[in-house]
Write a structure and sequence with these properties.
Blueprint lengths: L21 H8 L8 E2 H7 L6 H9 L11 E2 L9 H13 L12 H4 L11
Parallel strand pairs: 1-2
Helix pairs in contact: 1-3, 2-3
The protein binds a DNA duplex (13 and 13 nucleotides) through helix 2, helix 3, strand 2 and helix 4.
Amino acid sequence: MNITAPARCTVDYSRRVTNAGFERVFAVVRMIPEGRVATYGYIAAFAGRPGAARWAGQALANLGADDVPWHRVLNATGGISLDGARGATQRRRLQAEGVVFTNGGRVDLERFRWRPRIEIRRE
DNA sequence: CGTGTGACTCAGT
DNA sequence: GACTGAGCCACAC
């Protein structure tokens, strides 16, 4: 399994925000490379709203088209915050990407957490 | 407007 | 680890 990081990790915040800013959440989630995971809180912070983890979850709950790798988003304990079939789907997709689950059904975040290389630009 | 409800998180016990 | 309570954001009633 080779893990490839995205070429660059930038978010276009200038884009008009709709759906309570959910597009920002989707933009960040789309950056998560295959075989890596992120947490709701991290996604929210990266999208510009630290502490708004529920907001990130709400965005994914309202996800329409499946062009966002939502399955790579876990809760702060490394667990899946979904019940039933959707939770099973999430776990299956992650495992298909090489993500390992412990007996407790959790992922070792230290090992699989997405660590983006932030590109800092000066004006 | 108040209240309840989520794909949440943290500190305290 | 677990359980709890409070804080959190946005939205539907």
